[in-house]
Structures are given as C-alpha cells and as structure tokens.
Amino acid sequence: MKNLLVHTCCATCAVYCLEKLTNEGWNVTGYFYNPNIHPESEYEKRKAELSKLNHKIIIQDEPSKIWFDTVKGFEQEKEGGGRCEICFNLRLEQTAIYAKENGFEAFTTVLTVSPHKNSSIINQIGAELTLKHQVTFLEENFKKDEGFKKTIELAKMHNFYRQNYCGCVYSI
What we know:
Layout: E1 3-8, H1 11-23, E2 27-32, H2 40-50, E3 56-59, H3 65-71, H4 82-101, E4 106-109, H5 119-133, E5 136-137, H6 147-157
Parallel strand pairs: 1-2, 1-4, 2-3, 4-5
C-alpha cells in the first residue's frame, strides 16, 4: 500500500476524500497546512474538527504572515482569481515539500471537492510541483460523481462544523 499525503482544509471536505482514497488502496495521511484561514478562531475550529476523523492528521502550523506576504498586491482580486491561485500554490508546495522530505510516494489535496475551486488550476499546480520537487501529485477532481454532495451528507452525519467561506479574510 502506497503512502499518500493529502492536503486538508477542513473536516467537511476531508471526510469524503480521505475515505474515497482509502477505499482505492492508499494509506492516507491528512496534512493541515492553511496559513490563509482567518480569523485565528476559525483556524483553531477547523483544526480541532480534524481530530474527529478516523485518519492520521499532521498539523503544520504556520504564522499567517507568510500568507499575507505571499498574496500581497492581490487583496482586491475576486474569489477564484489570481489570489486563489497563489494561495493554492503556497499550500500545495508546502505539502509537496513535506511529502518529499517524509517519504510519501505521492500527495494530493481535498480542495478539488469544492464547487468554488477550479480543479484544473489546482491539478496544473500539482503537476508543476511534481516536476519541481520530484514527488508525484495525484490528480483528482473530488467533486465528480456528486463528491461535494457526499461531503455535505457525511459532514451532517458526523456533525462536523461546516464553514461558509474558504477561510481567507478576503472571502468572508
């Protein structure tokens, strides 16, 4: 069984994706790296919810300053624009680095389960990071086959906290 590091943003999105990947034969480990999530109370709430999952979760806390510095100049972008692409890259690159340094065969992200996220852009970033860091990105579009609907159903069944924005201060 191959080890897969899965970037996770919240328990709601992760529950379906981690289950699906496990059923496909992967040994999955969640990876919470999200310096974009604001305010701190929201960050802590999402982090705490991950402990309810039946999977190993690695928490990589990072000061939010790195995120603000990275997206500087893109504050006024609309949701789904250039700021989001920069944010995806920041979080996926850190996931790729962690995967490479810790012996994971591959990495992926649950971000593609959201109907508000462009899976093509996320998968392109992952492909570029594969070349840069020499660790395989598992291309996914978790919203296929009613994936988003399944995340909502599982979140309700497990009574997970479900946020109403991506996490960044500009999307509140």
